[in-house]
Amino acid sequence: MTTDSQLQAEKIYALQQSRVQKFRTGTTISLIILLVLLIVAFSGIDLTGMGIPFRTIQLDSAFMRENAAYIIQGLGDTIVLAIVSIFLAGALALLGALGRLSKFPPAYAIATFYVSLIRGTPLLLQLFFFFLALPQLGIRLNGWTAGVLALGINYGAYMSETFRAGIQSVGQGQREAALAIGMNQRQILTRVVLPQALRIIIPPFGNDFISMLKDTALVAATGFVHEVLWRANTVGRQKFKSMETLLIAALCYWAITIIFSALQTRLEAYLARGERGR
Amino acid sequence: MHVLKDISFDVAPAEVVCIIGPSGSGKSTMLRCLNFLEHPDIGTVEVDGLKVDVSLPARETAKTINQIRLRTGMVFQSFNLFPHMSALDNVIEGLVTVKRMDKNQAVEIGKSFLNKVGLATKFHEFPARLSGGQQQRVAIARAMAMQPRVMLFDEPTSALDPELIGEVLQVMQQLVEEGMTMLTVTHEMGFARKFAHRVFFMDAGRIIESGAPEQVFEHPQDQRTRLFLSAIEKKR
After folding, report:
1. Are strands B72-75 and B150-154 parallel, antiparallel or unpaired?
2. Distance from the B69 Cα atom to the nearest Cα atom in chain A, whole angstroms
3. Residue A176 — very low, low, confident or very high, per pLDDT cuts 50/70/90?
4. ipTM (interface predicted TM)
5. Residues 6+ apart with CB under 8 A from B177
6. By C-alpha distance, which of B72, B71, B94 is closest to B81?
7. Is the CB of residue A173 less than 8 Å away from at least one CB of chain B?
8. Contact map slice: A 239-278 vs B, CB within 8 A
9. How crowded is residue A266: how many other Cβ atoms within 10 Å of its Cβ?
10. Contact at 8 Å (CB) between A232 and A185?
């Protein structure tokens, strides 16, 4: 009896595994086909000769080779801009979250006001405000400063809700246990609440960072930060070859997004492993 | 709405008080008033010579309240260990962070208290890998490491599987024998009968009856106490 049911269980398991395997293989093949189609679409091959009345997009490959390095070098600025801005955003998000959780009315009001105002207006407008409007008040910010401020303040407002949720996820019993051994509010926050809240906050924080990597492109609009999109636009417009340069830029953003997403997945797996031990 | 009414009592050093009563009677709330996890509206709380008039504004009482918390250890029904710290780190957290003790010295003290509660092999385990009984013993060690003058136990065995209750009660018995001043909210009538010097029966926010365990358990004066005790007898 036991061997029979064991055999059956093994059969069911094997069946499930083969289904999973089939799905994976199918997905991989489909992705490869999509990638090949994309490459063919931009290959410049004339399909009319093969009886298909369609001409793929012709790119100036010599021009692309010449300018690719220049555009790709913008990735340094893109990544640095995103990292500096995400740190500012994290700091503001923490303050915003603490404000939203505060029982002190002015702190709650300021945090609510900040989140509402920033989430209620476009990021590009905020960037222009720092770069183009503040000079009227005699405050001249360079493109970098304006970019970091706009990105940091904007993302900080969105992330403060995430931080708030993370902090609230730490049970009241934890605070009580900390109070009972004589901890003050600051010690409770730094030693007990934040370390536990971070486990909740880090995954969405990573998502926001990946999203910010691409929003740094908005800072190209200042004309003074020579990140990927600015370089692509500048070179492309000069020679009327924006198709080529924007494709290079797109591949740059796509590549770093894939890389950072993979890192993010590993980080989440690492955090989840700790979770299972709880 | 008043949760507690006319609560007034003194506890002598080394005295063991057990507080019993139906759920919702205010037992836990009363215990939590003693270290100000709940703030009473009126009255005074005095612990080890530190007196707080609760009607004074918070900024005047905050410092004394913190001192009282340092001299009272608390054990919770749901343990409330810090899940991101090992058993040993849980025990030394108060020593290092609050008392600013040297880390090595704190580790020595922490280990000796974990030894005392029978967890010498579990220093570096995280709470999630410990049983409920082990977690509660770590929690007792964490409270005791601060060398409190009074220990408050808030239903310390209510969240435990029946087979784990004994190991926690045994540690508590050890504290009784060492002469620790203890206030315990409990449903463990056996423990109360055996170790309490005084038993409070609470109902509807009042201490209805108080006295030696043999008196309260064998000759309850009040009808509500009799009803509660007979209900418990029936359950057995």
Report:
1. parallel
2. 5
3. very high
4. 0.93
5. none
6. B94
7. yes
8. 277-278
9. 10
10. no
A181 to B143: CB separation less than 8 angstroms, yes or no: yes
Distance between B79 CA and the closest CA of chain A, angstroms: 9
**What is the percent of chain A with per-residue pLDDT over 70, rounded to a whole number?**
97
Nearest to A42 by CA among A200, A244, A257, A177: A244
Query: Quick check: A104 contacting B, CB < 8 Å?
Result: no
Whole-prediction pTM: 0.81
Q: Give the gap in angstroms from C-alpha A205 to the nearest C-alpha of chain B.
A: 20
Residue linked to tokens 């010097």: B197
Q: Where are the domains of chain A?
A: 9-36, 71-276
CB B75 within 8 A of CB B136: yes
Q: Do residues A56 and A44 make contact, with C-beta atoms less than 8 angstroms apart?
A: yes
pLDDT digits (tens, 9 = 90+) for B166-207: 999 999 999 999 999 999 999 999 999 999 999 999 999 999
Place of tokens 């005392």: B116
Question: Any idea what DSSP says for residue B204?
Answer: T
Is the CB of A105 inside 8 Å of chain B's CB atoms?
no
Q: Helix or strand or coil: residue A278?
A: coil
Answer positive or negative: Cα dihedral of B123, B124, B127, B131: negative
Which of B36, B84, B93, B129 has the most A C-beta neighbours within 10 Å, making it the best mutation to test the interface with A?
A: B84
A181/B146 touch (CB, cutoff 8 Å), yes or no: yes
First to last CA, chain B: 35
Q: CB–CB of B80 and A195 under 8 A?
A: no
| Cβ–Cβ gap A173/B81 under 8 Å | no
For residue B74, give how far its alpha carbon lies from the nearest alpha carbon of chain A (Å): 6
What are the Cα distances from residue B198, in Å, to A159, B16, B193, B212? 54, 7, 9, 5
What is the rounded end-to-end Cα distance, in angstroms, of chain A?
37
The CA dihedral of B43, B45, B50, B52, to the nearest 10 degrees, is: -40
Q: Which of A173, A180, A277 sits opposite B128 (nearest CB)?
A: A277
CATH class, domain A71-276, is mainly alpha
Strands of the B150-154 sheet, one edge to the other: B72-75, B150-154, B181-185, B16-20, B198-203, B206-211
> Where does residue B28 rank: exposed (0-12), middle (13-18), buried (19+ CB within 10 A)?
buried
What distance in Å separates the CA atoms of residue A169 and residue A162, rounded to the nearest whole number? Answer: 11
pLDDT tens digits for B62-106? Answer: 999 999 999 999 999 999 999 999 999 999 999 999 999 999 999
Strand, coil or helix: B19: strand
